[in-house]
Design brief:
Layout lengths: L9 H9 L5 E5 L9 E16 L7 H7 L1 E5 L4 H13 L4 E6 L2 H9 L5 E4 L9 E4 L7 E9 L7 H13 L10
Parallel strand pairs: 3-4
Antiparallel strand pairs: 1-7, 2-5, 2-6, 2-7
Length: 179
């Protein structure tokens, strides 16, 4: 058994699973249908919130997005595409300050008063210096899950790892072992 943890962006990891280079990947759900030879197994959902500097006077989220510099979650990432789709759907024009794909760095920029951002509410995110504003009825989630090639064999090391990850995320249902 050889276990290798490979960091990467979701699109790259998806391509590696599809090519058979890796057995499974934990990634943000793609904003498109997976090829039929791949299976998706949801692990957790993270609500996306508006992050504003704690010292900024309270305002509705729409006004903050329209009136403050916007620190954009990279549009080339699956999570950034969700943010971009949300802004288009809500017909909100933002004043972009910077675009990057590191959530903690985005949060730090917001914390230091450089703008506002739409971020997933991560379980371990340091919220000191931030005001996290719900998007209410317009809100959306970022889904994290496993992608693996079919057919899935739960008896393989990859199958056991998938089940362990699902249990750790609290999403494994009784009798379900396929991704």
């Amino acid at each position: 058994v050889r276990v290798r943890v490979v960091p990467g962006v979701s699109l790259s990891l998806l391509g590696q699973v599809d090519a058979g280079e890796i057995d499974l990947a934990v990634l943000i759900r793609p904003p498109f249908a997976l090829p039929p030879e791949l299976a998706w197994r949801p692990l957790l959902r993270e609500p996306v919130v508006l992050a504003a500097p704690a010292g900024l006077p309270p305002q509705p989220w729409r006004e903050l997005l329209a009136g403050q510099p916007f620190i954009r979650y990279d549009r080339s990432s699956f999570g950034g595409r969700l943010v971009d789709l949300f802004l288009k759907k809500q017909r909100i024009t933002v004043h972009e300050a910077v675009e990057l794909d590191e959530i903690e760095a985005i949060a730090n920029m917001v914390r230091h008063g450089l703008g506002v951002a739409l971020l997933p509410r991560l379980r371990g995110l340091d919220t000191d210096g931030l005001r996290l504003v719900s998007l209410g009825e317009a809100g959306f989630d970022r889904e994290i899950g496993l992608v693996a090639r079919l057919p899935h064999d739960p008896a393989t090391p990859a199958g056991h790892l998938a089940d362990c990850l699902a249990r750790a995320a609290g999403t494994l249902t009784a009798g379900r072992s396929a991704p």
